[in-house]
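Attaching the record inline, Q. Sequence:
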Amino acid sequence: MPELFAYTDIGSSPPSPVDSSDRRLSWGKLVQRLTDFSTPGNNRSMESGSNNSSRSSDVSSDLCAFNEDLFYDPMEETLLKEVVDLIARSLREAKDTDCALRCTKLLIPDKLLEHIGQELLHLAASEPCGLRGALIDLCVEQRDVCESMGQLSVDPYLVPTFQLALVLRLESGGLWPKIQGLFSTKSPSTPVVRQAIKLSTGFRVIKKKLYSSEDLLIEEC
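Structure, as predicted:
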């Protein structure tokens, strides 16, 4: 099986329309289901208020279950784990380069990776190709400057349908900023190299659809 992930240059994939036939078919089924519920036979008055309430509850539960089946894709969660692992690996590789993450050891909180995964799944849910259509920019914000750490294409064989910029931050609160200087090395002939850097659990994500002119979506997480 070919590897899904690949690094891509920014702007290398031009926006293009995507095939939404599957989505139209799914919405067609949903409309049909709603039509069935609104037929005269289903709207006749019930003999008692309790029966009517029970029927409304059944209809609501049926619709909720149908919506979950409509949008749930078990393969999406499997792909999500691989994407989050790739993001963590890419960040750890960046620490060996001359960038904001340059250090001997990069500490990435599990809570941060968990929140990133949840946000990716949330933002990809409304996309025609789901998470496979994502182009992800990794950035680190430090002293009001945002530095790029690289770009990931979830599926290099698919034209991206949306672009996400994950703007991560270095830990700036608590005890860590006060003691991290103790883990730095310095010599007269070499620049300061921090032994350890810890990322904050908070981040910003910016979403841009590549097949429409909608405004950017910015979320603080």
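Confidence is low (pLDDT under 50) at residues 9-28, 42-48, 63-68. DSSP finds five helices and eight strands in the chain.

More tomorrow.
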